Amino acid sequence: MASTTASDSSVEAIAKAAKEAFEQSQLLPSSVRNEALAKIKQQLELRKDDILAANKQDMEAAQKEVDAGRMTTALLKRLDLGKGDKWDSMLQGILDVANLPDPTGTVSYASKLDDGLELYRVSCPIGVLLVIFESRPEVIVNIASLAIKSGNAAILKGGKESTRTTALLASAIAEGLAQTSLPPAYIHAIQTRDEVSALLQLDRYIDLVIPRGSNALVSNIQNNTRIPVMGHADGICHVYLDESADLQKAVRVVVDSKTDYPSACNAAETLLVHESLLNTVWPAVGKALLDAHVELLCDTATHTALSSAPSISSHPSFPSLIQHTPNDTYTTEHLDLRLSVKAVPSLAAATAFINAHSSHHTDTIVTENEAHASAFCRGVDSAGTFVNASTRFADGFRYGFGTEVGISTGRIHARGPVGLEGLVIYKYMLRSSAGEGHVASDFGVGEGKKAFTHAPIQASKVPW
Amino acid sequence: MASTTASDSSVEAIAKAAKEAFEQSQLLPSSVRNEALAKIKQQLELRKDDILAANKQDMEAAQKEVDAGRMTTALLKRLDLGKGDKWDSMLQGILDVANLPDPTGTVSYASKLDDGLELYRVSCPIGVLLVIFESRPEVIVNIASLAIKSGNAAILKGGKESTRTTALLASAIAEGLAQTSLPPAYIHAIQTRDEVSALLQLDRYIDLVIPRGSNALVSNIQNNTRIPVMGHADGICHVYLDESADLQKAVRVVVDSKTDYPSACNAAETLLVHESLLNTVWPAVGKALLDAHVELLCDTATHTALSSAPSISSHPSFPSLIQHTPNDTYTTEHLDLRLSVKAVPSLAAATAFINAHSSHHTDTIVTENEAHASAFCRGVDSAGTFVNASTRFADGFRYGFGTEVGISTGRIHARGPVGLEGLVIYKYMLRSSAGEGHVASDFGVGEGKKAFTHAPIQASKVPW
Predict the structure, then answer these.
(1) pTM, rounded to two decimals
(2) Which of B449, B255, B221, B239 is CA-nearest to residue B361?
(3) Aldehyde dehydrogenase domain: which residues (chains A, B) (predicted)?
(4) pLDDT in tens, A111-123
(5) Under an 8 A CB cutoff, do B412 and A377 touch?
(6) Beta carbons of B389 and A437 less than 8 Å apart
């Protein structure tokens, strides 16, 4: 793994080297990738003290930024690699990734086209990934592990606040890789935004961009490249309380969706309440939200209903935490203990509202009506459509993927939480074992022309 | 199906209407889509005479363009809907698509996350397609069929030379759709390039662009939109004659790859010859190519070898059809009876050359060496890697997909010939049937926290 702070002019060389490293790696057995993960883990263990010392320096510099009001405490906390079991989790993560099944080399379609002519569609890596992330330095290790496991080369750029830490993590990765037959340019760390800008233009070498960070970071990247981008900018998730919603489920699902981790992309930002529930379920849900210190941005109907409920008017947070909705509330990702609320007259209205305002990430219905559950799951056009379950379940680990590359709100390739499967594509291999080879002009309609057989072949691997 | 020649200002309304039509269609049973295909076929049959008369007018106008030197005869021929069995094939194509398995609603992953909490990943349409094609008017029917079958809404733009024909085809599609419960805006035909330009900016409504036409058309679209584009600009395919190539296979595969249909994207444009074959296999292949009137653009080594072979120096096409390679020959898609030729010293050199110059569409090795076949198929980073078979086999029908949307040289979502599978993505549906609903804060590490079950569920359909 090479590391650089070179000028823009050398960025093309970096991208070209990554592509060549990717191409060279295609003939290596996949076992070398697991070997690389083991070596990287070993190097990180050997260099633990240095890395944590560098991380302390990053933390001290960041503390000054926090003191000067230029950085949030939340960001500072994410920087800390020595906290709790974070270091051990990072190392365990490498092992976990190594132990996942190889996502490459698997046949998903195989067909005998003619006697001696066999077609195989086999999973393979995508190519060169450009991964851009912010603050949490351990992400470089996570992403390098995922890239290596899936057979992709990667160029990685961390946040500037973790420069010292990521530089040492990167060099440990480089030393691990150097002990294997994977090319050194296979994983490459870059340091500057200018390099990122230049790389985003190099669609000849870079095959997929994965940004992991703020809405601003992701939007900026989406607007400045023709390379496919996998990820999400917004996470505007909805909970809809249907006419038949069970009160207790409504309270539990809404409170969890909003408060379990408010700054996560899968936290709920908007609550839709069927108007028949305004004086029954809604005040109970509203009270539970106020108990959890959630600020409620209500439309007129939900505001009026709430204000007139006895359990609310006597609440210590009344009226301070109950506001009228600002104009842009339904397109705002609050990422905080704040929830937009709106009354709707029907399931169809809720579905249409969600389709118009959701970021197509994850939306939930609370209902006892099976037909409504089905219509919501099919009618809401989001990566996740849930029934009586918190939006917070939208997560690769919770879905059972072991680890996740990120969550995609895109509509092609991969949608929702993306595991290793999202880092592979496929290619078609066709082999003629006939005595004279196979040519297309032998097939067709008319005298002497052959017809295709198209007989399925049972195979999980390509046999040659 | 609505049709328009409206100004740019109404283009957003068209896109929005298509998205809403898509959303509304999500709750209709998939049987309505097959019903729509049947009705469309019926309408086309009813209006056959009018349509063929309009096509004749288009042909007459095009003939004037050809006479004036502004259009090629090839383009004129593609316009002809009355020729041979083209009309019947078009109608049969609708039936064929209707008879394909429904690509939506299929579960590809299902897991019990906890007692009463079930996750399903189910295939679903992508959304709104923008399809831009040139000259062949029947493409509007093919593509409308594929979009309807896969549950996607579509906005379609044909070539200006077929305006009269496509307008009538479009109105027959509209009349067919109107007899079903699919919304009228589900399939919409537009007429102008300005509308296309405006639509390419509307990534809020358009989910995938599928251009089918010239390199210039596709490149232009790829450079002017942030909406994902599925297709290919170039088709620079290679044939590599390996050291152990069988002479007869070499001749057959090279000639077919080049001459079976030279203007197709899967025709070979470059031939790489292992240098040990220069005075053996290469002259035989060269002679067969000259017999087929193929112009050979040779590097020094292949030129020298060919010129000194007795079978060549006595050939009627010698030396007229044998040229030295121009500088840009290896990045040129000839689309004609012209082939770039180069000698290479090894399989590794051939692989590296192909990876650097191929458009990653389809490349073939001719070899008797199993290890070389395997290394070529894995090492060449293209959508199709073939052994002893013509590049011309890279085609959805030949692969057994029944029909094809196009051929993708992209690295995500779909690669190579794309069937209906390329027009779907998936969504995750999660349902709690537990008495209190499911919340994420109940899960985790520590006292009283639950662990995820992650037990596979055997299901091909979502059970609610």
Answers:
(1) 0.93
(2) B239
(3) 5-292
(4) 999 999 999 999 9
(5) no
(6) yes
